[in-house]
Each structure stands twice: as C-alpha cells, then as structure tokens.
Amino acid sequence: MANLISRARALYNLNHLAASAADTAALDALIAAVSAAVERHCRRTFTMTTHDEVHDGRAQPELVLGHFPLLSVER
C-alpha cells in the first residue's frame, strides 16, 4: 500500500512547520495510518495495481468489474 500524500506535501499543508526528527517519524506514521484507513473506508486502492477477475460471461449482457478505474485489459 502506498501513501496517498507525501511528507513534503503534508508539511506544506501544515504551513511549513519546523519538524524535528521525532515529528517527522510521527508524521510518517500518521500518513501511513490515514492512507490505509481511507483505502479501507473506500474499499479500493488508489494506486495503480494489478487485479485478476474471472467472469463466466453468462450473467448479464454487460460486464461489471469489481475494481476501477480500468487502465488496461490483458485478455
């Protein structure tokens, strides 16, 4: 799982607060925790990820995928 925001962007959003080594370690942990919580809440990943889905094709005339947005189809 990748973080949804960088440390530099978070510090920028916090108005360039001077951060000690302990502060940056805590900020990194918070960024990772909140990124994971957002993905769990939304039930999806926001980074480009490979997924395998198997469909028999008989259920409906249209194919409804479980992961989106779709970037490519291999077969």
Straight-line distance between termini: 26 Å
Q: Give helix and strand order, one letter per element, not per position.
A: HH
List low-pLDDT spans. none
Give me the number of helical elements.
2
Structural class label? mainly alpha
Describe this structure in words.
- The protein has 75 residues and is an all-alpha fold.
- 39% of the residues lie in helices and 0% in strands.
- The chain contains two helices and no strands.
- It has helices at 7-13, 21-42.
- The longest helix has 22 residues, at 21-42.
- It is rod-shaped and about 60 Å long.
Overview features:
39% helix; 75 residues; mainly alpha; rod-shaped
Summarize the structure.
The protein has helices at residues 7-13, 21-42. It has 75 residues and is mainly α.
